[in-house]
Amino acid sequence: MLQTGSLAPVRQGRPAGGGKLVPYRDLLIGWVEQEKDITMPELAARLVEKTQVVAYPASLSRFLKACGFTFKKNHCWRPRLHALTLPRRAVSGEAGRLPRMRPEPYRLVFVDETGTTTKMTRLRGRARRGERLRASAPFGHWATQTFIAGLRCDGLTAPWIVDKPMNRQLFETWIETQLAPTLHPGDVVILDNLSSHKSPQGRRHPQRARRMVPLPPALFARNPIEMAFAKLKAHLRRIGARTIEKFWQAVGHICDHYSPDECWNYLAAAGYAPD
To answer: Signal sequence span per UniProt (predicted)?
Structure first.
């Protein structure tokens, strides 16, 4: 007669206590204490370099949370759409302009500029639960630059940086000397409604393009170049260049790291790629 005994439940899933990361607890905590704004991919890369141990960023985040660290923000800004813009966005965006642009994404050139400074530093970091996150940041009068570029489905085009705010004269100069030589017959240049972009002379320069199309205010979230600028600023915060020369060198190196697949994904995420 076959007799069955009681079997103890077997634990499944992640090992308790951090698994293979436990022996490196002090090392990981030391790195985070020394560099509070270190990101989890950077921490994973450093762990591989120093110990040959491979750990996923999500695993490191859970492990640090178990060790009493929390992810904190010392600066916060959240853009909000006004309720009145939502119907306009639906009509002029998804149901209006986007379907007409999707068949030929290679003709689209998204233009915008963003402000950068030599005091940029990371805005987030980790600290022990219950403790305030304290980190150093530059203070004083620092130089401000404007970075302007165009985004195509296969890369950035006509990147340009000046050490002053954008105005109509600078925009016309950029159009004539940087953007116009890169345009092809039938290209569509898409830009927002900034006052300096409304220059009649600037709109006449790119004669080889089919037209320059203003982006409605309700569709500012649909401009894929904003995602490219987010990557640019993230790298600038990581590098921490404090002089104009080093800053411009850093921008040049970052622009070389936009791959065609990445730029295509920017357009796809904004709804400008074919279904």
So the answer is: none
Q: Is the pLDDT of residue 275 over 80?
A: no
- Contact (CB, 8 A) for 263 and 151: yes
The b/e string for 202-236 (b: 16+ C-beta within 10 A; e otherwise) is: bbebbeebeebeebbebbbebbbbbbbbeebbeeb
Angstrom distance (rounded) from CA 180 to CA 170: 14
The pLDDT tens digits for 223-249 are 899 999 999 999 998 888 888 888 889
What end-to-end distance do the CA atoms of the chain give, in Å?
A: 64
User: 179-231 pLDDT, tens per residue?
Assistant: 988 988 888 888 887 777 777 766 665 555 556 676 665 555 678 999 999 99
- The Cα 119–Cα 222 span in angstroms is 29
Q: What is the largest CA-CA distance in the chain?
A: 97
The answer to whether 177 and 202 are in contact (CB under 8 A) is no
Phi, psi dihedral angles at 180 (to 5 degrees): -55, -45
CB 116 within 8 A of CB 165: no
CA distance 229 to 149: 10
194, 223 contact by CB (below 8 A): no
